[in-house]
Amino acid sequence: MSEKRFKRDTRLGHLGRDPARFDGAVNPPVYHASTVIAPDTATFKASGRRRFEKGETVYGRFGTPTHQMLEDALTELEGGADTVALGNGLQAISIALLTVVKAGDHVLLADSVYAPTRKFASQMLARLGVEVDYYDPLVDGPALDALIRDTTSAVVLESPGSSSFEIQDVPALAETAKARGVATIMDNTWATPLFFRPIEHGVDLSVQAATKYVVGHADAMLGAVTANHAWAHRLRETVYTIGGFAGPDDVYLGLRGLRTMGVRLERHQATAMTLATWLQERPEVAEVRYPALPEHPQHHLWRRDFDGASGLFSFVLAQPYSQDAVAAMLDHFDLFGLGASWGGFESLAIPSDPYRTATAWDAPGPVVRLHAGLEDPDDLIADLAAGFDRLTRAAG
């Protein structure tokens, strides 16, 4: 069956499945396996060489058929050469970086990257002898080229950026890096490969915190890295050396979530747009940072490169409300939960002021990050309106 001739939601229902391989089972079974018995000594000795071959199960640490099904599905969706399923999103970005860098190298990261990525780079990579610098996420190709050194081995992109939701010119930056022999890594968690495919835009390694929209139900931790042909072997070699595969139960939940990701993302997007448009009219709000809004500064790049927008965005309050006033708003929602992560069926709201080192973050008030879940938009708007009332009362 040639999957590529079918449309997106059809492919989501069929990728990563092989009923004939599993006695007709619609869903791949969960393999709980560490030891895999070889039939003879020759096969056992050859197993180390076969660990890179598709469809081979030689040792639980190298993955099972459950892993292979999810990895094959994500590889096809991303348009890559190979995918590895990992324990969480931070592990995914860390593995991607360790695939590319070595002691003495220099790495450039967008100033808007996920905070734990920043911590891993600034602490762990620095400890390993890798120099780290941050760059303005809105640089163009020539400006990025000026930052690249002879020792630069990787440029890390995140589009849109965490908390602030800038859209980067990914094709231009990837082209610039490639011309200098530098690998590019992109965190694509926000868009998923349904709405953006980094490898098709010139990126070498595409990273997802599959905990979010792939799993989609706030009940499993999962990460994934997809590589192009140039980096596929090195990626899998790095994972095998470190030993970073995800557990089979979480992988199974990722496969289950994949089946409905298309319809869920459409609902997340529709609700987010409804909320974002409503928030634009609120006097308490200075700016809504959602790339799908025409008023977003890089909306033209989003329209050019993306097929849609997910449910995560932020808004900037119109004045410097105190922490207590913001807490009064956030602590008493009926529907918006106050919790880390996102991408599940539930709506979330957290304080999320961006952290910057290479650029300045200048805003009139605090930032609130929202995830639009699958609840009715009218109920979510009523919950937000009540929150703004609390904010106003607390501010006096």
From TrEMBL:
Origin superkingdom: Bacteria
One Pfam family here: Cys_Met_Meta_PP
Keyword Transport belongs to the record: no
Catalytic activity: L,L-cystathionine + H2O = L-homocysteine + pyruvate + NH4(+)
Keyword Cell wall biogenesis/degradation applies: no
Keywords per UniProt: Lyase, Pyridoxal phosphate
Signal peptide: none
Names of the cofactor(s): pyridoxal 5'-phosphate
NCBIfam families for this protein: cysta_beta_ly_B
Family statement drawn from the similarity comment of this UniProt entry: Belongs to the trans-sulfuration enzymes family.
Full protein name: Cystathionine beta-lyase
Gene (UniProt): metC
